[in-house]
C-alpha cells in the first residue's frame, strides 16, 4: 500500500518556529505571557497539533495590523471631521473592526449547543486484525491524535453544565485513513428508534415555542406529553432520570456509541460491535439538589473541571471497550440489535478493553476548535461500517446537512480542526470560503488531460468499499415487529440500581412531573411507569398526590392508516434480570485524583493540623483549597501566615467533593460564629460528602444540625458508613479521610431523609 503522503512536514517546521518564536519573546514578560510560553512548549506534539500550528496565531510581541496587514496607528479613536465632529464613512479601520464584530456569531448547534472540547491521543493495547482492518485499530506503535467534545443536549450555548440531561461524548480520531468520528452519548440507548422522530423529540424537549421556557430542562409539559405517548422512550427515560444525567465530571462518565456498528476484517468478514468508553476515575454523579445549586454558583462547572484538570496535568483517561458479536448471533438476544433503545447486557457479551484515550491538551481557541468541529457519524474508515439501525441511517444524513447552515457552506471540512491529517484530493471545487488552491485544468473524472488524477484507490490499497450486505426486501414505511418490546430493558435498568439510585429516579420523576401543568400528561406518565415497575409508579403517584390510572396509555406513533393494535408494546422479560454494571454503586472508588477538597480555617488555626491533611491530600493528587471568612491570609496560632484561596462569599460546598475543618480552638470559634461556615458543613452533609474535623474544632461540628445524628464513635467502620470523621489530625486520620473521599458519596445518609439545608 502506498504510504500516505504526510502534509504536515511544513507544518512541523512552522510549529517549531512558532514555539521557538514564543519562547524568544522579548523580556520582561508579563506573568500571563510566561504562562502562554509554558503552555506552548508543553503541548504534546503529534501530527494533528503540527497541522493545527499552521493556522495558529499568537499576537504576543507583535504589532497590530488591519486584516490586509496594514500597521495600525490608532485603534482607539475613529476618524472624525473635527475632534467633536461626525465620524467619517472613509474610516476603513472603524468599518473593518465593526463589520467583523457584527458577524462574529454563527448559529449554535441545533442540539448539543453547549459543549467543551479537548485534544488528546488514543493508544491501542492489542491489534484487532481478527475483527477489523482499520489501521488505527491495528497499530499499537503510534498514538492516534483525537479531539473530543462533551456536551449537553437541550440547552443553548450559554446554558448551565448541570442540567438534567444526556451528555454528548463525541470523539474524532485523526487516523492515517482519514477522520473517524464516534459520535456517542454518556447513555447507551436513545429515546427513539427511527431518525424521522428526532425533530419531534427535540421540539418537545427544547423550550416551549410560545415563551421559550424552560432553558436546558426537560421538566415541562411538551417533553412529557411526547414521552407519555411514545413508549419506546421508556428505557432511555430511566437513564435520563437516573444520576447518569448529573455527572460529577466529564472525566467521570462512561461513553457509548449507542448503535450497533460493523467491524470488517481484511478477509471481508464482518462482526457487529458496540463501542464503549470506560473512565479510569470511575463513574460518579452529583445530587439533584446540588446540581441545581451548582447551576447558580458555577454554571461552567464541567467545562472548568475539564479545563483545570488538564492544565494541572490530571489528564482525563478512558478505555475503549468493544462488545463484539459474531454476525451469526444477530438474532439470539431476544431483542433487536438494530433497535437503539436496547443495550447488550455485559453479562451476555463482555466488554473487551482495547485501548486508552487520554485528553492531555486544552484547545487554544474555543471557537476555532470546539465550536467549529463538525462531527459526523458518516466519517468512517475502512474496517468499520454501518448497520441498518434506522436511527443511525437518518443520522448519516443529518450531520453534514446541519453543518451547511451552521458553518456556512460546503467547505467546512477545510477548517483546521476538521482537516484530516492525510491529504485530501478530489474533484469538488469552489463554494463559499474555499481555502484550497487546486492546481490544474481538470476537476472531473474520467479525464485524460490530467492523467485521470486524482486516482481512485483499489480496495487492496485502502480504498473504502461498503460492506456488501445482502438485502432483498420490499420498499416499505414500517417499524419492525422486533422493535415493540418497549419495557423489558427499562425494567432491567431500574432493577439493577442500588436503593439510593432507585430513590433518585423516583425523586427525579416526581420533580419533573411535578413541573408538568397538564394533569392528563402526568396521568399518562403514571400509566407508562406502571409498565416498567408498579412500585416506582405508585411512589411517584404518591409524591404527585395522584392515584394510579385505570387505563394504560398506548403507543400513539401510528401512521394514518395503521392498525393501532399492531403498534402497541409487546410485553417481554429481559433475558438478564439484573446487570450490576448498570448501577454506579460498584464503580471504581480507589482514587482521589483531581478531587476538590475545601479546608475551612480562620485566624488562630492550628497550622500543623491544616498542613498534615493538605499535604496528604495533595500527595494523592487531590486539590485542596483553604476557605476562610475573608480573602488574603490567615494568621495561624503559631504566628505563621496561611494563604487563603477563597472566602465564604465565593466558595460553596457544592463546588467541592469533601470538607475538612482544620484545628485551632479560636479558629473554630470564629467559624462557628460564621453562619456560612456552618451552612458549608450542613450542605456538604446533605449532599452526602466526606467531612473531617480536627479534634479541637469539634465545636463547629456540634453547631451543625447533623452532629446529633451521628453515632459519635469515629471508628473506621462508623466513619466509612457515616462519612464523618473527627479526631486528632495525624497520618492515620488523613489516610482515612482520603479513603472516605474515594468513596465519592455516602448516599445511605439520605435514607432517613433528615436533611434540610
Ligand atoms: Fe445527534 C449533534 C449524539 C441522534 C442530529 N449528536 C450531536 C452531538 C452528539 C450527538 C454527541 C454533538 C456533536 C458535537 O459535539 O459537535 N445524536 C447523538 C446520539 C444519537 C443522536 C448518541 C443517538 C444514538 N442526532 C441523532 C439523530 C439526529 C441527530 C437521530 C437526526 C436525525 N445531532 C444531530 C445534528 C447535530 C447532532 C442536528 C447537531 C449539531 C451537529 O449535529 O453537528 O445533526
Distinctive features:
757 residues, alpha/beta, Catalase HpII,  Chain A, domain 1, Rossmann fold, ten-stranded antiparallel β-sheet, six-stranded parallel β-sheet, globular, binds CIS-heme D hydroxychlorin gamma-spirolactone, oxidoreductase, metal ion binding, Catalase_large_C, hydrogen peroxide, catalase activity
Write structural notes for this entry.
The chain has 21 helices and 18 strands. By secondary structure, it is of the alpha/beta class. Among the domains are: 1-58; 115-418, Catalase core domain (Catalase HpII,  Chain A, domain 1, Beta Barrel); 596-750, Class I glutamine amidotransferase (GATase) domain (Rossmann fold), CATH 3.40.50.880. Mean pLDDT is 93; it is low at 1-38. The chain binds CIS-heme D hydroxychlorin gamma-spirolactone (HDD). CIS-heme D hydroxychlorin gamma-spirolactone binds at residues 109-112, 115, 149, 151, 168, 170, 183-185, 190, 195, 198, 258-259, 340, 373-375, 391, 394-395, 398-399, 402.
CATH architecture of the domain at 115-418, please?
Beta Barrel
According to DSSP, the number of beta strands is 18
Rg calculated over all Cα atoms: 29 Å
Q: What fraction of residues sit in β-strands?
A: 5-15%
- Main structural class: alpha/beta
* Number of discrete helical segments: 21
State the distance separating the first and last CA atoms.
66 Å
In one word, what is the shape?
globular
What is the CATH superfamily classification of the domain at 115-418? Catalase core domain
- Overall mean confidence score, pLDDT: 93
* Poorly predicted ranges: 1-38
Q: Which ligands, by name, code or SMILES, are bound?
A: CIS-heme D hydroxychlorin gamma-spirolactone
CATH-defined fold name of the domain at 115-418: Catalase HpII,  Chain A, domain 1
Characterize the largest beta sheet: strand count, sense, and whether it forms a barrel: 10 strands, antiparallel
Task: Provide the CATH top-level class of the domain at 115-418.
Answer: Mainly Beta
Approximate helicity band: 25-40%
Amino acid at each position: 500500500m502506498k504510504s500516505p503522503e504526510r502534509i504536515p512536514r511544513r507544518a512541523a517546521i512552522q510549529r517549531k518556529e512558532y514555539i521557538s518564536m514564543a519562547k524568544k519573546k522579548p523580556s520582561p514578560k508579563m506573568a500571563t505571557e510566561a504562562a502562554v510560553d509554558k503552555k506552548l512548549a508543553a503541548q504534546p506534539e503529534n501530527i494533528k497539533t503540527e497541522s493545527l500550528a499552521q493556522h495558529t496565531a499568537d499576537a504576543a510581541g507583535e504589532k497590530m495590523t488591519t486584516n490586509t496587514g496594514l500597521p495600525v496607528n490608532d485603534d482607539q479613536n475613529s476618524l472624525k471631521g473635527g475632534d467633536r465632529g461626525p465620524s467619517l464613512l472613509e474610516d476603513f479601520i472603524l468599518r473593518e473592526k465593526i463589520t467583523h464584530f457584527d458577524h462574529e456569531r454563527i448559529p449554535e448547534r441545533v442540539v448539543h449547543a453547549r459543549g467543551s472540547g479537548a485534544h488528546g491521543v488514543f493508544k491501542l493495547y492489542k491489534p484487532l486484525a481478527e475483527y477489523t482492518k482499520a489501521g488505527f485499530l491495528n497499530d499499537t506503535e503510534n498514538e492516534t491524535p483525537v479531539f473530543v467534545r462533551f456536551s449537553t443536549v437541550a440547552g443553548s450555548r450559554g446554558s448551565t453544565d448541570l442540567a438534567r440531561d444526556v451528555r454528548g461524548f463525541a470523539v474524532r480520531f485523526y487516523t492515517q485513513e482519514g477522520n473517524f468520528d464516534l459520535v456517542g452519548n454518556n447513555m447507551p440507548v436513545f429515546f427513539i428508534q427511527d431518525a424521522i422522530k428526532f425533530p419531534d423529540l427535540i421540539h418537545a424537549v427544547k423550550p416551549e415555542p410560545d415563551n421559550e421556557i424552560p432553558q436546558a430542562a426537560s421538566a415541562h409539559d411538551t417533553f412529557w406529553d411526547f414521552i407519555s405517548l411514545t413508549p419506546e422512550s421508556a428505557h432511555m427515560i430511566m437513564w435520563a432520570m437516573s444520576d447518569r444525567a448529573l455527572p460529577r465530571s466529564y472525566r467521570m462518565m462512561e461513553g457509548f456509541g449507542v448503535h450497533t456498528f460493523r467491524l470488517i476484517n481484511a478477509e471481508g468478514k464482518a462482526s457487529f460491535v458496540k463501542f464503549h468508553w470506560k473512565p479510569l476515575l470511575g463513574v460518579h454523579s452529583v445530587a439533584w439538589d446540588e446540581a441545581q445549586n451548582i447551576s447558580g454558583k458555577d454554571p461552567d462547572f464541567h467545562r472548568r473541571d475539564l479545563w483545570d484538570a488538564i492544565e494541572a496535568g490530571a489528564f482525563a483517561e478512558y478505555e475503549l471497550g468493544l462488545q463484539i458479536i459474531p454476525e451469526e448471533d444477530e438474532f439470539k438476544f431476544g431483542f433487536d440489535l438494530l433497535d437503539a433503545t436496547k443495550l447488550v447486557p455485559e453479562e451476555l457479551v463482555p466488554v473487551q478493553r482495547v485501548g486508552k484515550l487520554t485528553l492531555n491538551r486544552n484547545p487554544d481557541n474555543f471557537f476555532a476548535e470546539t465550536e467549529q468541529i463538525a462531527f459526523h457519524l458518516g466519517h468512517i474508515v475502512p474496517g468499520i461500517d454501518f448497520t441498518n439501525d434506522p436511527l443511525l441511517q437518518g443520522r448519516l444524513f443529518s450531520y453534514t446537512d446541519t453543518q451547511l447552515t451552521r458553518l456556512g457552506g460546503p467547505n467546512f471540512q477545510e477548517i483546521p480542526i476538521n482537516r484530516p491529517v492525510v491529504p485530501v484530493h478530489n474533484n469538488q471545487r469552489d463554494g463559499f470560503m474555499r481555502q484550497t488552491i487546486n492546481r490544474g485544468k481538470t476537476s472531473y473524472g474520467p479525464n485524460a488531460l490530467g492523467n485521470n488524477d486524482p486516482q481512485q484507490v483499489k480496495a487492496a490499497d485502502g480504498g473504502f468499499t461498503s460492506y456488501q450486505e445482502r438485502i432483498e426486501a420490499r420498499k416499505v414505511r414500517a417499524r419492525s415487529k422486533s422493535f415493540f418490546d418497549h419495557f423489558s430493558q427499562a425494567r432491567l435498568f431500574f432493577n439493577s440500581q442500588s436503593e439510593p439510585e432507585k430513590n433518585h429516579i423516583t425523586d427525579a420523576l416526581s420533580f419533573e412531573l411535578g413541573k408538568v401543568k397538564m394533569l392528563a400528561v402526568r396521568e399518562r406518565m403514571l400509566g407508562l411507569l406502571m409498565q416498567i415497575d408498579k412500585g416506582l409508579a405508585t411512589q411517584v403517584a404518591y409524591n404527585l398526590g395522584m392515584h394510579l390510572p385505570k387505563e394504560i396509555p398506548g403507543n400513539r406513533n401510528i401512521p394514518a392508516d395503521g392498525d393501532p393494535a399492531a403498534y402497541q408494546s409487546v410485553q417481554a422479560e429481559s433475558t438478564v434480570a439484573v446487570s450490576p454494571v448498570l448501577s454506579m454503586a460498584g464503580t471504581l472508588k480507589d482514587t482521589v485524583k483531581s478531587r476538590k477538597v475545601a479546608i475551612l480555617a480562620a485566624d488562630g488555626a492550628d497550622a500543623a493540623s491544616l498542613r498534615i491533611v493538605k499535604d496528604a491530600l495533595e500527595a494523592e493528587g487531590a486539590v485542596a483549597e483553604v476557605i476562610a471568612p475573608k480573602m488574603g491570609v490567615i494568621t495561624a496560632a503559631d504566628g505563621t501566615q496561611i494563604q487563603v484561596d477563597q472566602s465564604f462569599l465565593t466558595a460553596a460546598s457544592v463546588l467541592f467533593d469533601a470538607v475538612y475543618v482544620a484545628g485551632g480552638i479560636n479558629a473554630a470559634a470564629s467559624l462557628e460564629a460564621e453562619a456560612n461556615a456552618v451552612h458549608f458543613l450542613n450542605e456538604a452533609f446533605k449532599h452526602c460528602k466526606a467531612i473531617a474535623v480536627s479534634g479541637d474544632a469539634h465545636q463547629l461540628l456540634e453547631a451543625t444540625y447533623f452532629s446529633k445524628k451521628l453515632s459519635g464513635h469515629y471508628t473506621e467502620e462508623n466513619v466509612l458508613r457515616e462519612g464523618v470523621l473527627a479526631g486528632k489530625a495525624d497520618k492515620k486520620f488523613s489516610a482515612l479521610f482520603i479513603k472516605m473521599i474515594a468513596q465519592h458519596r455516602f448516599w445511605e445518609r439520605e435514607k432517613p431523609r433528615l436533611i434540610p439545608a
